[in-house]
Amino acid sequence: MNPRITMAVTGRVLSQLRRDHRTLAMLLVLPCLLMTLLWWMYNDSGPIFDRIGPALLAIFPFIVMFLVTSVTTLRERSSGTLERLLAMPMGKLDFLVGYAVAFGVVAALQSVLAVGVSVGLLGLEIVGHVWLLTLVAVVDATLGTALGLFVSAFARTEFQAVQFMPAIVVPQILLCGLLVPRDSMPDVLGAISDVLPLSYAVDAMTHLTVSSSAGEVWGDLVVVAAFVLAGLALGAATLRRRTA
Fold this sequence. Notes:
Shape: globular
GO biological process, one term: response to antibiotic
Helix content: over 70%
GO molecular function, one term: ABC-type transporter activity
Strand content: under 5%
Radius of gyration: 18 Å
Order of helices and strands: HHHHHHHHHHH
Number of strands: 0
Keywords: Antibiotic resistance, Cell membrane, Membrane, Transmembrane, Transmembrane helix, Transport
Number of helices: 11
Largest sheet: none
Pfam families: ABC2_membrane
Distance between the termini: 26 Å
GO cellular component, one term: ATP-binding cassette (ABC) transporter complex
């Protein structure tokens, strides 16, 4: 992997996103709007927003980044852009890491905005450090990016890329502890939950609502970061130059 080439790919993607106002608005504004809608729904229902809000701060960026990354990467391949890029002295890992860094920058902006709105404007109560909450959101959004890059290799159309969401994203939402505490699940489902990365992101977010200790949070972050690296490695191994 060549750092200069990787940064060139990053700059190219960021330049494209800057010109695509609709996608940029979806990436930066949509999580804030969803958190605001959630707060509005539970405004008169006691502490429900404080209980589920942190978990959804992990889930919303994950979903948005997964969708946008998978569709965008597939578009690069189906249009022939990826084949032209890989014909140059650039490896697959340069391409994937460049994309991951670019969307990671967007994920950081997205997470700062979502956390700022949730904590500063909507009154979400956090016992732990707000900066650590933001870091968890950034890493989780980057996880969505890595998984989106990985699954894009198996889709032939943008519609097929979106269809991976029920297979990859929805089970993680159902088993991450948002709907039912993980320790209350049947043993088999609990075991499956233990190997899904979103579970650890939600655990980290939830821990920040009840304790100021950062030890468990860092452990969960390491697990999510390991899944990010694994997603990028698998993406590099399966990335195809063109759509068959």
